[in-house]
Amino acid sequence: MAPSEPVSQPLGLTGFNAASLAALVERRGERSVTAQERYDALARYEELPARGPARGRYWKRDLASLDLSGQRPPGAETQADLYAPVGPLAGNIVYTQIDGASTCDARGGMVEAFDGASDRRAEALSAARGRALDTRDDKFASLALAFQHGGVFVDVPPGRRVEEPLVLAYEAREQAIFPYTLVRVGAGASATVVERLRTGAGTSPHAPFLGPLCELVVEEGGTLTYVVLQEAGSDATVIATRRGVVERGGTLAFAVADLGGGLSLDRVRITAAGRNARIDVGGIFFADGDQHVDLETETRHDSPETRSVTVVRTAATERGQGRYLGNIHIAEHANASDASLRDDALLLGRKAHIESIPALEIASNDVKAFHGATVGSIDDDEIFYAQSRGISRAEAERMIALGFFEPALASFPMDELRDHLRREIARKLEGAA
Amino acid sequence: MNDMAEQGLRIDGLRVNVAGTEILKGIDLVVEPGSVHALMGPNGSGKSTLAFAMTGHPNYDVTAGSVTLDGESLLELPPDKRARAGLFLSFQYPAAIPGVSVANFLRAARQAVHPDDLPPAKFRQLVFEQLDALDMDVAFMSRYVNDGFSGGEKKRLEMLQLGILAPRYAVLDETDSGLDVDALRAVGNSVAALRKSDAGKQTGFLIITHYPRILQHITADVVHIMMDGRIVKSGGPELANLIEREGYEALREEVAGGAV
Fold first, then answer.
1. N or C: which end of chain A has fewer CB within 10 A?
2. Could you tell me the domains of chain B?
3. Do B97 and A390 touch (CB under 8 A)?
4. What is the rounded CA–CA span in Å between residue A4 and residue A104?
């Protein structure tokens, strides 16, 4: 891996506004995202209302008055000392970005920096970009596009089957990061991509901000497994916008673990655009401490004979707050489609709270759709049963709570990832105990 | 070592309320080490209440009496410590624990009841022997505890745990209910195997049942009949035969007549 970007000088600016955007554009020139797009996006960011859970009895964060004026925009000084790969699947990291500096391992031309795409790639990139992600209806997606900096374009050619997972490591230290991850899986191709989001031990007095954009395009008969491990520090704000489109006969298996961040909003929308397209969504979060976590998933069935399966398991302990909004949309002409959504929430503390909101919009008569949701604490009969076998109450609770996540963990590929997640969940359980 | 006089699972004058209603109205019963007692009675007589109260279910409120296990008083202990003292309950309706594999559950239970007494290889060997004895496939081990199990599978898993925990005293609550002949035989075989083993030859059994048919597979030394929260009659195995022939109503009349 070789560093791709020279280290920038300090901009000396704070906040996400016209002045800091002008400095970014001047510094970087036009790349995959044009200056005009950025200014338009900034205008939308300033005009659009913030969507998300409303402040109330449990949810303490007010998105409408989220103060980002102290944030340091991208383009400020960056750290070039890229770390040795750590964490799950460290050996499979193909792209590392810390603040604005990045290294990229091209993997035979499949992986390229989003900003540094070669001429040959630039065409493919602009052909793929926008097929799934439109930032125009969303405030924070617009912000991310305006200040986009870094990210990666993974382009898997038709027919290519990539066995090893491609791991992307994004880390914020001294400044906000807005990486753009664009993945195109060509016809009949398959790949697994893992996106890791972290924050480092920075010296910035400001809480880190991560605003990733993610756009996934699966072409005819292709298969993409996309995994998000969001493990930002507890002082971080993470607002992610993720969109996917699956064409005829393709499969997108999407698994997200939002374990980090003080405030985490993750908005996922995947469209089954072609006949026989399949979408699998797995999601987990576990809000502890003072964490507020909001996860939205939407599966859209726009063609006949499409299938989607969504399995979400969430938990909250201490003062942790969560909301899960699960939406299934089936278009009028999407006959013989089959959608299911199962979400269960586990409350482990008296001050912890999770809201679960299912929403089914079904315009076709000829479909199967299932939805089931529960919010509850650990079942007393399960604890008693385990205790009757000599297992202490604390151990029984730990065991049952860990087991609770298993159906959603099954959506994650690879033992190494699942074991990592089990350890992180166990760590949260022990911290709260 | 406890005094020999204190040996046994001893229930003295036990009274138990459930939701404010007295269900057990003074139970006296001693299960000696290595013995098999059957507790029979019609539905609603309080048999399962006795099992849950001994095990320490929070909904069962002991208002009087004591339960000791080889001299150790159980009633002050939480359920897990009662199990570690050597008490085992085979549930009539065991809870499912989704997400927790049978393998992990058994390992945790064995470790809790008999800490560090078996190296992993020996533990695996023990598990395989017990699976074999119960005609259970090894695939059971990776399933979630009782999750989606048939009635027979649940009872087999209870027996598997009995074999692996080798308790000092085992209470089998309606283990025969809902079992076909083969499953019933498997239950009988596994109890017999435990009683023959070094670990289980001192195990005392209290077999709670509505029907006498399980006693064709496990011979009881003593049979007790419970009605309306009291033990109304105790005797040898012939008592079970009497119930089979004449039912509980005949006995109820006899007991009521005797009381006049």
1. C
2. 4-259 (3.40.50.300)
3. no
4. 8
What single string gives the DSSP state of each residue in A261-282?
-SEEEEEEEEEE-STT-EEEEE
pLDDT tens for each residue of B99-115: 999 999 999 999 999 99
A234 vs A161, A179, A198, CA distance in Å? 37, 20, 10
Could you tell me which chain B residue has the CA closest to the CA of A407? B99
Among B236, B87, B83, B253, smallest CA distance to A392 is for: B83
pLDDT band at B258 (very low <50, low <70, confident <90, very high): low
Please, where are the H alpha helices in A151-276? none
Distance from CA of B97 to the nearest CA of A (A): 6
pTM summary value: 0.90
Give contacts of B100 with chain A, Cβ < 8 Å: 399-400, 402-403
Do the interacting molecules here have an ipTM over 0.85? yes
In a domain, A100, yes or no: yes
Inside any domain, residue A73: yes
| Type of residue numbered B76 | E
CA A253 vs. chain centroid, Å, equals: 13
Strands of the sheet containing A101-104, edge to edge, are A101-104, A93-98, A166-172, A190-199, A223-230, A251-258, A278-287, A307-316, A337-347, A367-376
Residue A12 maps to a domain: no
- Please indicate if any CB of chain B lies within 8 Å of the CB of A290: no
